[in-house]
Design a protein that fits this description.
Blueprint lengths: L10 E5 L28 H13 L4 E5 L9 H9 L6 E6 L4 H11 L3 E5 L5 H7 L5 H14 L4 E7 L8 H10 L2 E7 L24 E4 L4 E3 L7 E3 H4 L1 H10 L19
Parallel strand pairs: 1-2, 1-7, 2-3, 3-4, 4-5, 5-6
Antiparallel strand pairs: 7-8, 8-9
Helix pairs in contact: 2-3, 3-5
């Protein structure tokens, strides 16, 4: 489907949960966020229906995000179901990697195409600080598990914070190369001020070629990460929410004041 600026929109990012086992400083405020109730969160049956409608509308690239998608119970069943939908060319997942030692082999077996793994530092103290308590050894074990499971073209997502971890860029790039990963560097963004940047090593942040919309865990279709324009699929209906989100997609990002990054899915 084409948006008002003639961009072909074929990529849907699906947040399956607003919960996470880390509390990264660039994703969640220190005081946390108010979590949605189980009733508010989309069921797997609803997500399947949404994806089937998306495919009918011309979408073929999908990514599961969170929060942390691997903490949602039954996530393997959802991946298996979506992977079997005809018309999907790519079904990927963004994860912090901590649970990959448990899930990587099964994720590969049920049809997940590819992984993006977040890793913002190779120093245990910095990793712990930026993730508010995370264990670097678990993240590294997750990356190893993904390799052993046979995942290829895995991307390493590193958020760079000026004066904190930006001096690790070359080391992260080297680590990615040694582990057959593609490094993607994302300068810390601010939804409230509207500060965003193009992703180094990826297409994100380049508004002129943006091809995506986002589905929040509570069923809101969002036109843009940096916009509060969103449509409730339960009230609007799935296809109408898609059409409204694409039809109202802004030419470029501005600000998002109503949600934190963890509540959108990044």
């Amino acid at each position: 489907m084409l948006d008002p600026y003639n961009r072909d929109i074929y990529y849907l990012r699906i947040s399956v949960t607003d919960r996470c086992n880390l509390r990264c400083t660039y994703c969640m405020p220190e005081e946390g966020v108010t979590l949605k109730s189980h009733h508010d969160i989309l069921s797997y049956e609803e997500i399947e229906e949404i994806v089937r409608v998306a495919v009918k509308l011309g979408f073929y690239k999908f990514r599961l995000t969170g929060g942390e998608p691997l903490i949602r119970k039954g996530i393997l069943d959802l991946v298996r179901t979506l992977a079997n939908i005809e018309g999907i060319e790519t079904l990927a997942m963004t994860t912090n990697g901590l649970l990959l030692p448990k899930y990587a082999t099964e994720l590969k077996a049920v049809g997940l195409s590819r992984l993006n793994i977040s890793l913002d530092s190779l120093r245990a103290d910095r990793y712990r600080q930026i993730s508010r308590g995370g264990d670097l050894t678990l993240a590294l074990a997750g990356i190893q598990a993904a390799r052993e499971a046979g995942f290829e073209k895995t991307k390493l997502n590193a958020v760079l914070v000026d004066g904190f971890n930006d001096d690790e860029k070359e080391n992260l790039k080297k680590f990615a190369a040694e582990n057959n990963m593609q490094a993607r560097f994302i300068k810390k963004m601010d939804l409230k001020s509207g500060d965003y940047y193009q992703v180094e090593g990826g297409a994100g942040g380049n508004c002129s070629i943006c091809n995506r919309i986002r589905l929040t865990a509570d069923g809101k279709m969002r036109s843009c990460l940096f916009s509060d324009c969103e449509f409730d699929i339960r009230k609007e209906g799935i296809e109408e929410a898609f059409r409204k989100a694409i039809g109202n997609k802004p030419q470029k990002g501005h600000k998002s004041l109503k949600r934190e990054m963890i509540q959108i899915g990044g």
